[in-house]
Amino acid sequence: MQATPARRRCALAVFTGALAAALPAADSIAQQSQRPLSSRRTVAAYDFEEPDNPFEVPADFFRAQSDPAQGIDRPGYPVFNQAAFDTDHARSGRRSILLPIERGSVALRLRPGAIPVFPDADYHVSCYVRSENTEHSRFRLVARLLDQNADPIPGAEITSSPILPEGRWQRVEVAVPGGMHAGAAFLQIDAELVQPERYREPSLDEHQIWPEDFQARAWIDDLTVSQLPRIWLRASTPGGIIPEPDQPELRFLVRDLTGERLTARLTITDARDRAVFTDTRSVRSSAVAQRWPIDLPRLGWYHARLEILAGDRVVGDAKCDLARVATTTARTDAEGGYADPDRARFELAVNTWNQDLLDALPQIGRATATKGITIAGWTSELTPATVEARTDRILDLLTSNDHQWADPAVALRSVPDHLIDQLILDSGDVLDALEVDRTIWADYLDPMLDRLGQIATRWRLGDSHPLADFGLHDGDLGRVRRELASLVPGPRIGLVQRPQLALPTWHAASLSGVTLALEPGTGTDVAARAIERWLASPLANSARLTLAYDTSDADRFAPDAVTMELVKRIILAEAAAAGTDADIVHQLVDPWSVTSRDGIVSPAPAVPAWRATIDRLTGRTVAAELAVAQGVRAFLLIPTDRDDPRGGALVAWNDHAPESDAWVRTNLGAAELTRVDAWGNTIGTVEPISLTSDGGHDIRLHELQVTPEPTFVEGIDVELAVFVASVRIDEPIIQTTPGPHERNVLITNPWPVAIDGDVIVLEPLERLPNGRRTGWDIAPRVGRFSVGPGETTAVPIELSFSAVEPAGPRPFVVDIAIRSGPIQERLRAPSAIELTLDGVELDARVVIDRSGTRLALEAVITNTAAEPADLVLHAATRGYPRQSASITDLAPGASTVRRFVYPDGPRRLAGAEIYVGVEDTVRRGRLNKRVSID
């Protein structure tokens, strides 16, 4: 279809008349016999056929190039690049528009006034493009809104992402949102083929040299402009967090000026992208929001998509996220969260300065049971003219009765742009900015210090985003602290740091806290490693460590993956800090998104799991890690108050164990145990099983199969679980040198009364089921113990093993038969030992020659000791003679390679193993491995 100039003029006249008399309702528009073109679904469609057009370009378009003859100066768009009709390529019909470039860029522009628009309507512009010889240049669509005088409205231009067209037709599109510019009257469109200097940011300023395409061409066809319904969708609660038992509900608005019959289709998916709710209903255009009750089967994070259909065509959609969270009933305060003072260990960081978000923050704080807050005071857009209003808004937030924030902090995230221009600094050099004369920065900060200093004594310098430039150097932090102290009583100054950098110990005297910015996807152990480094630094005795879990870049990962990583990081960090006096705070950074047009605040996937983790950890400490299957992590959560009715809990997940081995088997007590997932959902129970030992004794165990998602078990017997977890060998690393090796089995009594009984060592086994000896000798296998309340005792044993025993981990399992104490029961306590030989590394693999007839064992031996080593390498397998090779005077840090060849090995050794070992002739130690042959 071709939109002719005559029809355009008619549509414009009708449109401007309607605008002057106020827009009619959508229903009345639908009833008009002659509706304006601007109120139709398809506002304009250009197929570029125009058989009666004698000119080189379509009737509604002109070339937007520099033209000195006409006094038109448009740098980068030379006059010799001439868009024109073309008959060599067409997506439909016989003609398209050619956009050629010799050098520079080329643009075809829609004439002002050609497409009238409604100010509140959304529009969609699309076309098809193909190209030749476009190596550096890119195609893009530009849409801009014009006022009634056909002049561009400032800030009302939208550009599509530049694309590299191919030799086939590709669709390019751009959405033009309405309602943001009250004076919008017309839509103008540019179709451009542009060189890199037009779509890339220079990295060398005016010294940048740009590559260019010469003799490149692009074709466009079937350009369409459609009117979309104006739609928004949001949760019924501020921040999109819906606590139990409130009925989940969405609110939505549909404004459509076409008058078509519309159907709404709502689909809600969970964090694993599984549909959990679908519904449809007829809707009409309305200025009043409508309600849509929904059913969310579980606690967790959800994504809602509302599609608006005209017939069977989707003509628009809107999306929002929401979270369903629990309302804790045990030991709660009036705000629905734990009354324990350590709720302040959990904190929100507000880096986004947005009015809609600030309005929702009290509800977010209550719904997430989060007491602490750090709010941005300095951001790039701050000016002396806006600092008073910002201070007022922060003060209102921190003193509001809607939510009581504990120990709030103000973050000077970045140097304001106006101040950067004066000081010639980078945005992250906050410490540098505050070290200059106070008169330079006083207008940006003194109002905040004066009015907020009585409420917020914590002031953080730097940005918690992991990619920010923090500007940490050996600055005069003491001087900055003295400057702030003139208006803030006892200011506590904190700095932001990347976890991989050295802690800023040169600031220790004036530093009250360090924030470590943790990026998503950098591993679950990063928080625990940060705690370990912190505890080893002098700062741990006087400063607070804040672990800032960033979620701003989390869309690179699956929602459930980011969430589970967060929960594991918190647990591992708590475990690393257990038993210390370290002041540790967990901070969730900007866990929300805010739409710029409608101000809809949606929670990030981490939010409901953050709330559930706070519920699990508040009033508890991570007391011990259980020794379970290799690759499985399991921790005990012990209440800090013995009278806490919740008791203790266990949390476990599978890090890297095979699914068949991912079990926790231990005695967790006699009470009914409840399984809870990382979102806070009750997902079942854990039932005990009964085993019969070799002596006929019954042993009760709880079996819990774990997955990569953390699972909590509530209702455990804390003392019993602590007792079983305490039973372990004192030095689990055993050198593979001749024994016997002396060790102790440690036992801690958590009960308030003395206990005594027997320790029975079960594994490593002395004999296999067929009666053959394993080579392991443990003496004694049974030992007696007696231990007082709260004390630890050691039961001595000696271990010996065969010289050919392979290196690596081994299960170490003991039974504890308690004869007297609070219980009389036989308990099983699994742990692990590991065989190794310090100073030597052995890496072995099997290689097969090209003929497939010979197999070789290739061994790499490395001396990791500080002295030269004399070694002997041995290898043995079925059907072949034993082989050996001497390695003399191997230097420290050096490696050497030895090969043992097995003729016809691929056939004769299929499915077998080769035993390889390296012996240290001085220490008489031997490091053995088994190499499987597939």
Structure notes:
Helix content is 15%, strand content 40%. The chain is an alpha+beta fold. Mean pLDDT is 88; it is low at 1-35, 329-339 and 469-474. The strands form 12 sheets. Strands 21-22-23-24-25-26-27-28 form an 8-stranded parallel barrel, surrounded by 5 helices. The chain has 14 helices and 55 strands. The radius of gyration is 36 Å and the shape is globular. A hairpin with a 6-residue loop joins strand 51 (869-876) and strand 52. Helix 5 packs parallel to helix 8, helix 10 (526-535) runs parallel beside helix 11 and helix 11 (559-577) runs parallel beside helix 12.
Oligomer: single chain
Low-confidence stretches: 1-35, 329-339, 469-474
Query: What is the residue-mean pLDDT, rounded to a whole number?
Result: 88
Strands of the widest sheet, in order across it, are 21-22-23-24-25-26-27-28
The whole-angstrom Rg is: 36 Å
* Largest sheet data: 8 strands, parallel, barrel
Total number of helical segments?
14
Structural class: alpha+beta
Q: In percent, how helical is the residue content?
A: 10-25%
The CA-CA distance between the termini, in Å, is 66 Å
Number of strands: 55
